[in-house]
Each structure stands twice: as C-alpha cells, then as structure tokens.
Amino acid sequence: MFSVGLPGTMIRSIQVVSEAFFRGALALARRIPSPLAARLGHGVGLLWYHVLRYRRGLVAENLAAAYGLSPRDGEIRRLSRANFIHYGHLFMEMLRLRKLAGDELERTVTFVGLENLDTALARGRGALILTAHLGNFDLQAMAVARRGYQVLIVSKPLRNKALERLWMDERASSGLRISLHRNALREIFRALAHGGVVGFVLDQHARTDAVWVTFFGRPAATLRSLAVIAQRTGAPVVPMFTWRLPDGTHVIEAQPAVETETAGDSDASALHNTARYSAVVEAAVRAHPEQWTWIHRRWKRPPAAAPRESGEQP
Length: 314
Fold this sequence. Notes:
Layout: H1 8-31, H2 34-52, H3 56-67, H4 74-95, H5 97-100, H6 105-108, E1 109-112, H7 114-121, E2 127-131, H8 137-146, E3 151-154, H9 161-172, E4 177-179, H10 185-193, E5 197-201, E6 210-215, E7 218-223, H11 225-233, E8 237-244, E9 250-254, H12 266-287
Parallel strand pairs: 1-9, 2-5, 2-8, 3-4, 3-5
Antiparallel strand pairs: 6-7, 8-9
C-alpha cells in the first residue's frame, strides 16, 4: 500500500520506521500483565463495535443470513457485539503471541484429543490439519509446534516486507515452519513424507483452485487443495480447532481423522471431500460463533460454471 507514487528509498524508510514501531509495540505488550491485557482487549473490541463500526453491518448481515434471522434481531446484536470483543482480545493476544505460546503456554492452553493427532501420525504419512479462523488460530499453530510436532503452515506474503519478516519471526519463535510461496506443494509433500503436520485453513473465500460447497446453507468458494493432497498422499485429515474460555485461557481440540472418500473421478472426489470438510468447519463455528471471522466476505455469488455440490442452484 506504500508503493504508489513513492520512490524506493522512501518506501524502504517507511518500512524501517513501521518495523521499529511494531517491534516496540510487541516488546511493550509482552510486559503487560495478562489481566490488564484482557481488559485492554475488551475495551478495543467495544470501541470498534460502538465507535469505529468498521464492517459492523457486514458482521450482522453474515450472522443473520447464517442463522435465518433479521440483522436487527436481539440475538444477532448480541453475537455481533461479542464478535467484536473477540477481535479486541485477538488483537492484544497477537501482540503477546510469543509470550502466550512460550513462557505462559502451560497456563494459557489446554489440549484436548491430541491422541487423535498421534493416531493419525502413526500411519506414517504425516497429517493434514483442517482448521479455521476460529479463536486464536495462530496461537493454536504455535502451541502445537511448541509441543514438539513438526508443523508447517502456508501463509500469504505481506506487502510490507519489513513487517512480514517481523511477523514471521514472531510466529516461528515456537518452532513453527512457515512457507510464503504461492506454490508450496513441494514443501508440503516433503513435510508429510517426514512425518510432519501441515495446516490448512478452509474457511475463507477462495479466488482460485476453488469448488463451491455449502457453508451455513449458502454456496461458498472453498479451496480444494486439502482434498486433492489428501487423495494424492494418503495423509489423514485431522480437524483441529481452538476457542477462548471466559477466563482468557484457550482450548485446542484435535478431533478424529476425517477419512478420505472416493466419489467418482478425482475432481468429483475433491468436491465431495471438500463439502465434508466444510461441514466439519461449520460445526466448529456453530459451537463458538462469537469467535469466528464474520467480518470476512465469505459468501460471494458463484459463476454459473463453477464446480459445486449436487443439488445446488447457480
């Protein structure tokens, strides 16, 4: 966002200054006691909801459509407000992520069902993690890596390369491996072959390599990559989700593996399994709706020729 009309030296100077600012913010945030950080996060969320109001209407519309209610319904208003409070807590937690997934890990995180991940890894083909932007999803990845699992995630590059280095350093501090390449298949296959764990976030609108499957009753463009890789490698798909408890701690739950099914040719099978993964994600979001990213434009109109579940109308 800094590149339009600015010389290269000025761009680099802005990036250096922004990196220094955020390094200072991260250092300061790590010194804040957890109870104070929680109060600050709550306040940031309320400020966003009541004053800034950025995408507040979109959150209400998405929730209303998902639950078949009016955006003005009292339950939708309650969920919308709670959702923005979640964003405030998430903001403060992201600033303190290295501390939460490091020194405070045992106090911060409770693992449930990790035996399901171990059972999947015992097959000798690595494991593919099906997850979503639910709760503090970055903390989940870092905490799993801190437990000793070999974790690889594929992340979108940032425009500001200085901030990108800073943020990737924060995430990698737990032993998490991050690929910023658009075509990361080679790294994914290598990680699986060595018994690693590869995370896939399957709850955002996919512009490419997408199929349209049902999500909260509406067609949603969803990456087919997870299904395709599971078919090609035989790696089990383990759903794993996290959510925040009222006391500020986090639960990370690994569920039993979703077995890959065959439904015709490879394309039909990818569509079929992606629909099954979408249903698993929806169930996790329904359990903790206030902690999902309703602020994202998840549902867009599908092209007439887009691959979709049987029975869906264009």
